[in-house]
Amino acid sequence: METFVHVEHSAWREEELGLLSLDATACIYDDHTDARQQVGRTRGYLVRTYYTDQGWNDAYDAADSASGDVAAIISTVKSQVSDDLVDKLFILDKITVEKECRNQGIGRQFIKKLVTDLEFIGIDLVALTPGYYSDALTDEEMQKNNRLVRLYGQLGFEMMDVGEGQTPIMLKWLR
């Protein structure tokens, strides 16, 4: 029997940054007791490239204030994607599934439902970094990252062409 994953959202606008932050929590419920168990969570940022006259530049400045990883994704995306194609970019910054819940299809359901919700609210493009990257990854970390690249690929994300030694970025077009 497949576990049913429910996704709950909370959002707030960080006016000084010009970003909308969205947290999503993946939960499963026990049918018999109605007990709720949190099994995963994510944080992301909605970036409006047409929100101001400065477009990508304002988006980059706002993202850099929130997270260097988010700013790096915006920098790479803006160098390869036409301004005319993207008004609403959503960057998934942190995605976690509790250790005891991994390898059960929960993460896959969580991302599918989250992407469906993002499409519903009119997001054009979703971007993420598949895993954790540093200069000195262990074999275990590299294997985990490779599994995440395969998972996101199966969910319709495509690897961007990034420079040698750069952190990989994956994109999924929703429009």
Structure description:
The chain has one domain: Gcn5-related N-acetyltransferase (GNAT) (Aminopeptidase, 3-Layer(aba) Sandwich), CATH 3.40.630. The protein has a 7-stranded mixed beta sheet with strand order 1-2-3-4-5-7-6, with helices on both faces. The protein contains 4 helices and 7 strands; from the N terminus they run βββααβαβαββ. It is globular. By secondary structure, it is an alpha+beta fold. The model has no long low-confidence stretch (mean pLDDT 84). Helix 3 links the parallel strand 4 and strand 5.
Outline of the structure:
The protein has 175 residues and is of the alpha+beta class. The chain has helices at 56-66, 68-80, 106-120, 139-154, and strands at 6-14, 19-29, 36-48, 88-97, 125-128, 158-159, 170-173.
The shape is: globular
H/E element sequence: EEEHHEHEHEE
Query: Structural class from helices and strands?
Result: alpha+beta
Q: What does the average pLDDT come to?
A: 84
The main sheet comes to: 7 strands, mixed
| Known CATH architecture | 3-Layer(aba) Sandwich
The span between the termini is 33 Å
CATH fold name, please?
Aminopeptidase
Strand portion, in percent? 25-35%
Low-confidence stretches at least 5 residues in length (pLDDT < 50)? none
Helix content: 25-40%
Question: In the CATH hierarchy, what is the superfamily?
Answer: Gcn5-related N-acetyltransferase (GNAT)
Would you count the extended β strands for me? 7
